[in-house]
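Q: We require from you a single protein entry containing the residue sequence and its fold in token form, and nothing else.
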Amino acid sequence: MQLFELVPNLSEGRNDETIDRAVAAVEATGARVLDRSSDAAHNRSVLTIVGDADRLVEAALALARVARERIDLRAHRGLHPRIGALDVLPFVPLGDAPMAAAVELARNAARKIWEREGIPSFLYGEAALLPERRLLANARRDGFEGLAARFARSDRPDIGDIAAHESAGAIAIGAREMLVAWNIELQSEDLAAGKAIAAELRERGGGLPGIRALAFRLDDGHVQLSFNITNYRATSPMQLRRSAEAAAAKRGIALGRSELIGLIPRDALDDAIAEFFALDKDSSAAPSTPQAPHSER
């Protein structure tokens, strides 16, 4: 049996009951929820779900229904960019499951969500139908508030013939490999400096391979760097932290605490531990570690 991971990002991080209902709806399909993570400042929650193809499509439908019923983007406020109540829905192949199967799951889920819930979708990543939408940021361009204007200029959803559901918006549905979602706080309130560091580090600006980066000011005034490591074999978490530390130091800023969102692949964690202690990961001197929590933001 082929297994897949589903990592939905919901635009709700302050109402635990809504996330409880989302988890219960997923578990009722037979899929397994491995992790849940909520952030009040971003007003966003991330679930990590595993299951076979049929269960994950049903889980996606169940999540779309809960999001439509309980999250109204017209009243939503949070730091993180979003186009939908169920904002991002990536399918990730596990083990010997091929990427092509994850692509078909993503497209099938998008079609069924439109048919049953009336929510349109933009397809991204490996599931993209348009080359420019492979990048999530392009699929989610201009946020919920900009969906009508996008539709008017023919930048329309891939699935569905309306700009957006009136309260639930649209969904970015994709297929991708595993990634690591990681936030690092700066000991600074300088948002301009944070944005400059993010721009320096992100791959699209000529920075580190596989790195996507944003900067936000948190409620306590500190600036947070929010990273997706889309290829942790090309840029490890330790490499990213060292680069962030150097970029911040150039601006007279120190790093503060960091935060993992969702789960992390075991081999990425093993590599980070070995790198931290300067150990050969294949050496008997390397510490053994328990099975660790993979992810997205």
The chain is about 30% helix and 25% strand. The first helix runs from residue 16 to 27.
